[in-house]
Amino acid sequence: MSLLSVEEALNRVVTKARPPHRTERLPLHDCLGRVLAEDVAAQLTHPPFDNSAMDGYAVRHADIAEVGAELIVVGESAAGRGFRGDVKSGEAVRIFTGAPLPAGADTVIIQEDVERLPDGRIRTQFAPAKGRHIRLAGQDFREGEIALAAGQVLDAGRLTLAASMNHQSLPVFQRPKIAIIATGDELLPPGSIPGADQIIASNSFGVAAIARENGADILDLGIVPDDRAAIAAAVAAAQSAGADVLVTLGGASVGEHDLVQSTLVGCGMTLDFWRIAMRPGKPLMVGELAGMSVLGLPGNPVSSLVCALLFLEPLTRKLAHLPPRTRLATARLAVTLPANDRRQDYVRARLTVAPDGLLLAQPFSRQDSSMVSVFALSEGLIVRPPNAPEAAAGEACTVLKLRDPAYAEGQ
Ligand SMILES: Nc1nc2c(c(=O)[nH]1)N[C@H]1C(S)=C(S)[C@@H](COP(=O)(O)OP(=O)(O)OC[C@H]3O[C@@H](n4cnc5c(N)ncnc54)[C@H](O)[C@@H]3O)O[C@H]1N2
Ligand code: MOO
């Protein structure tokens, strides 16, 4: 049996996906991490007027070209309360950061560079260049200028800019909706008291977290038994909720109780592919049901999480209009790894930053795809390509980062 390669499978999952053009307008505080759906122009000019960048005195440069100039202080300009008169020759206006520059003045001298005389006048102790410490009207942006572009992801800087451009809300793409169904007669939700032959269903939580982290809304349809009618009812619920993607967990393999694929085909799903050359995650299934992408992930918790990282993450990002994200990095192997077979292997590993600054990858000895504890301890997965020869300790390897690496002892 020839298995599809990870690259080919990824290509088929992501290339075909069409990001929906559904938009909504959200208040700024709700826009973090969202993608702008339209170009956004400034609704005003910033700064709206020439103003001072420092606390000091607004003066005419011609008056202070020489150190030791003495000027009469004729008033004050504070932020929110400007000086209404003109600064004439021989005069200065006390000015504060952000305050409007009074008419007639063309330079600000900072207060540290003047001496205040007993009669209230000032004497300059430094000769600043003309125009010093003045922020010119419109130097940041002008009304009508497009300062944020469709497709940009809204982060701290862009949200601050949007507010500064006088926008209370922004047009963003809606989050794609991802429905999740866990299947299996043996499954109970966390918090239950398991009977004989029962286990706690855990996969949905990790898979939902991966989808959420990448900009999706989740519809968790819970646990359904290994029963065609129950599975079909859950699939119909996902469809009527308008899910963009349906993720099924478990029942993807070849046993008599693995009913997911045949039930989905019975519901009208077109199967794209099933089973790929990777470990864990071989029984991954991909299809399409009336415009809804279907990802059938294997039941073993680590298999479902690795498949979600490899396939659901890029699919979700594309549907959310988010740019692709790479988790790949280069590390150095802490131990020698044996030659690999035909399945691309994702080996759970500790990643530490060694004292020389390079990443060190130390695989865990237990790699069973049911072992959630090992996955939770792993900072990364060592990627072993199909048929890779033995790799010696100290050799470079590719790792898929799950979280930031730890620092080696003593650092
Ligand atoms: N004869 C063969 N047997 C198996 C093959 C194969 O090629 N030939 N593939 C193996 C591989 S690889 C995997 S991975 C599993 C995947 O099987 P399924 O997707 O059918 O998953 P299940 O049988 O339903 O469950 C596997 C395992 O995971 C537990 N599970 C299921 N769902 C959850 C959940 N939501 N939370 C936590 N744990 C879950 C389930 O109880 C089983 O222990 O098949 C191999 N077999
Ligand atoms: O591929 Mo399975 O996912 O090896 O356990």
From TrEMBL:
Asked whether the keyword Membrane is assigned, the reply is no
What Pfam families does the annotation carry? MoCF_biosynth (PF00994), MoeA_C (PF03454), MoeA_N (PF03453)
Q: Which domain of life is it from?
A: Bacteria
User: What chemistry does it catalyse, as a reaction equation?
Assistant: adenylyl-molybdopterin + molybdate = Mo-molybdopterin + AMP + H(+)
PROSITE patterns, per database record: MOCF_BIOSYNTHESIS_2
Q: What class of enzyme is it?
A: transferase
Name a biological process GO annotation.
Mo-molybdopterin cofactor biosynthetic process
Domain MoaB/Mog intervals: 179-318
- Name what cofactor the protein needs: Mg(2+)
| Pathway(s) | Cofactor biosynthesis; molybdopterin biosynthesis
For this UniProt entry, the molecular function terms from Gene Ontology, in alphabetical order, are: metal ion binding; molybdopterin molybdotransferase activity
One GO cellular component term: cytosol
Family (UniProt): Belongs to the MoeA family.
* Record PANTHER family: GEPHYRIN, MOLYBDOPTERIN BIOSYNTHESIS PROTEIN
**NCBIfam families the record matches:** Glp_gephyrin
Full protein name: Molybdopterin molybdenumtransferase
**Species:** Sinorhizobium saheli
